[in-house]
Amino acid sequence: MKNLKYLWIGLAILAILSPIGLMASGDAWGEWGAEAFKKMLGFVPAGLAKFSGIWKAPLADYSVPGAGDAIGYILSAFVGILLVALATWLIGRALSNRERKDAKG
């Protein structure tokens, strides 16, 4: 449990430091939209053009209405950490239950 405590502290520190990304110029690596591809490549890949409207980020551009940019980045980081932790826990629980069922036969 001690190691888990250090993991959570480390994740919290990284979340708090996430607004450092605001100092960078340009787009973050891998966060390119159709417009950025058009500018970089001269065209938009067909798959991106077809599926680009399917998903809308819950905290688009890492912003929270009424909060500053830095607060938006920090809140987005914590929401992401919590969602990944929840998904990991749910998958672990499901696999654990499946193993118990298999052991009982």
Walk me through this protein's architecture:
By secondary structure, the protein is mostly helical. The protein contains four helices and no strands. It has helices at 2-17, 34-41, 46-51, 69-104. α1 (2-17) runs antiparallel to α4. The protein is flat and about 60 Å long. The mean pLDDT is 85.
Give a quick precis of the structure:
With 105 residues, the chain is mostly helical.
Describe the structure using short key phrases.
105 residues; mainly alpha; 4 helices
Q: Radius of gyration, rounded?
A: 19 Å
Shape: flat
What is the number of strand segments?
Answer: 0
- Helical content band: 55-70%
Poorly predicted parts: none
Cα distance, first to last residue? 32 Å
Question: What value does the average pLDDT take?
Answer: 85
SS strand fraction: under 5%
Number of helices: 4
Element-by-element helix/strand order: HHHH
Biggest pleated-sheet summary:
none
From the helix content, strand content and strand pairing, which structural class follows?
mainly alpha
Blueprint (SSEs and pairs):
Blueprint: H1 2-17, H2 34-41, H3 46-51, H4 69-104
Helix pairs in contact: 1-4
